[in-house]
Amino acid sequence: MASPSKPRKRSRGEIHTLPSGSLRVRVYAGIDPLTGKKHHLTEVIPAGTPNAAKAAEQARTRLLAQVDERRNPKTRATVNQLLTRYMELHTAGPTTVDSYETFIRNHIRPLLGDLQVGRIDGEILDSFYKQLRTCRAHCQGRRYVEHRTNREHECDKRCRPHECRPLADGSLRKIQSILVGAGKRAVRWGWVGTNPFELAEPLPVSRPNPQPPTAEQAAAIVTEASSDLDWGLLVWLLMVTGMRRGEVCALKWDRIEFQTGVLTIRTSIAQRGKRTWEKDTKTHQQRRITLDEQTLSLLRVYRQHCAERAGLGAEMPESVRIFSPLPDGSTWVKPDTVSQRYVRMCARLGWDMNIHQLRHYSATELIAAGVDVRTVAGRLGHGGGGTTTLRVYSAWVAEADQRAAGSLVSRMPELPVKLAEEGEPWPEQAQATAEDDSPYKQLAADLRGAIMCGAFQPGSVLPPVKDLATRYRVSFGTAQRAIAALRAAGLVAVSRGRRATVVDPSQANQDTPAAVVSLEAKRQDA
Predict the structure, then answer these.
(1) Measured over all CA atoms, what is the biggest interatomic distance in the chain, rounded to whole angstroms?
(2) What pLDDT was estimated at residue 114?
(3) φ and ψ at 30, to 5 degrees?
(4) Within 13 Å and on the Cβ side, how many CA atoms surround 98?
(5) Which of 72, 200, 435, 437 could form a disulfide with 125, with the two C-beta atoms 3.0–4.6 Å apart?
(6) What percent of the chain has pLDDT over 90?
(7) Residue 518: what pLDDT?
(8) What is the mean pLDDT of the chain?
């Protein structure tokens, strides 16, 4: 009696010969979560490929490994389908959603929209960002005329041959953020095993370079704006408070406490095209700013002026807007109108400026005057306890350090006659001069300036070494060496597992260098 034969093991995956002679490899990969139909991974080995049968078997093995390790795409959904679903579930505010939709419509859908999410790889992403860095219009080398309007018109100097302009770094980072966020959702939904959009190289972060008006330019701007009382006071408030343009447009008279001199900022006006609406502030928190007596006096006079103009006699009701295109203050002025008017005013003065630079002016003047960074961050509405303020305005902290150095030198005794005549440096000076250009010295000088001017108060902690290395574009070891230099100078205390802490001069021991003991005096001189 013959023994029963063993059941034949069913082979996973299929290899079919197509009419063209090519070999199609097909592997079952589950149920498509988007359509509910069977999903297969496929790969075609072109006809004429050497050892085509062996290559097809290798492809089948590779696709099976992806399925077994759950690295395979679970659906044939395209980037367009993913983005549509992603935006349907996005919970950001209207401004953010409109901004995302603009980037998706203008840049992502035209270039990546028809591709399957599972077929996105590093080469495709590198080509995508390369094209955006080359031309924001995706011209791909085509020559055409850019018309000023799509309607029928007589061409003039505004209709000119197309010139390639790259997309700004900030816009590229927003596009990358959209794609990475959508990819994370795709992984969570089971559409793909891994996020394909994380294969792109991190985009470089441009170093902040604020360019506020100088004192002379600020005086000229205020003089020019004061020809119109409404406009002049709006510019003045932006300059002395550092408010955002939308915040000043949303102000009402009940936000000002004239007895205590406090201005409360609760909301902001957002604008997208012709549509405007009132929303929370950028950080979704209200803040209180103390106003000086001169500004309060100007506001009292302006309120009386607005009441007389509206025919109310005494004073404006507290529920109306401070700045409004209508005499009764029933509506707000549009943020884009404010920005455009400011640009035109500065153009008449011969400068290319934008209204956000008034915010930079307020911050830099406060820091240069010795106000600590946390207070400046509170007035500006920066989050992170002053981290953003220090990162953006660190150049002006260094400037305050230079002023402190000048004040210190003015109090030092005169050099000996021989050294003053011959100009021979002391040995310590010669060594310091040779090392002043090293990166860790520059980083230590910046942090020392922040400590001297009061940006970091005694007892406060410095940013993490990793953040300092990223911010100043140096290695981790270089940032550690800068902290070690501050520790050697007695300016900070470092313990295992904790960040560097600024030393309190009053608690300095006898071994602490004299520079630390005189820290408070130097800060007052700064």
Answers:
(1) 121
(2) 92
(3) 100, -165
(4) 9
(5) 200
(6) 21
(7) 40
(8) 79
Q: What is the pLDDT of residues 484-501, one digit of tens each?
A: 888 888 888 887 667 888
Which residues lie closer than 8 Å to 94 by C-beta, 6 or more apart?
A: 270, 272, 277, 279
Q: What phi-psi label fits residue 155: left (phi over 0), alpha (psi between -120 and 50 degrees) or beta?
A: beta
Q: Are strands 256-257 and 160-161 parallel, antiparallel or unpaired?
A: unpaired
Report the alpha-carbon distance of residue 295 to residue 262 in Å, rounded.
11
Check pLDDT > 50 for residue 514: no
**433: part of which helix (H) or strand (E)?**
helix 427-435
pTM: 0.60
Task: Count helices and strands (H / E) in the chain.
Answer: 22, 12
Alpha-carbon Rg for the chain in angstroms: 32
pLDDT at 5: 44
* Nearest to 178, CA basis, from 114, 118, 125: 125
**For residues 477-506, b (16+ Cβ closer than 10 Å) or e, as one string?**
ebbbbbbebbeebbbbeeeeeeebbbbebe
Ordered domains of the chain (ranges, CATH): 14-68 (no CATH), 79-143+161-199 (1.10.150.130), 215-361 (1.10.443.10), 393-413+434-525 (1.10.10.10)
Q: What is the mean pLDDT of residues 312-324?
A: 82
Which of 85-99, 213-227, 506-520 has the least mean pLDDT? 506-520
CA distances from 370 to 363, 450, 451 (A): 11, 10, 11
Share of the chain residues as helix, strand and coil, in percent rounded to the nearest 5: 50, 10, 40
Strand ranges inside 159-239, DSSP E = 160-161
The distance in angstroms from the start CA to the end CA of the chain is 106
Query: DSSP code of 278?
Result: E
Q: Token pair for residue 94?
A: 């209207």
Asked if 169 and 204 touch (Cβ cutoff 8 Å), the reply is: yes
Distance (Å, whole) CA 473 – CA 462? 17
Whether 43 contacts 118, CB under 8 Å = no
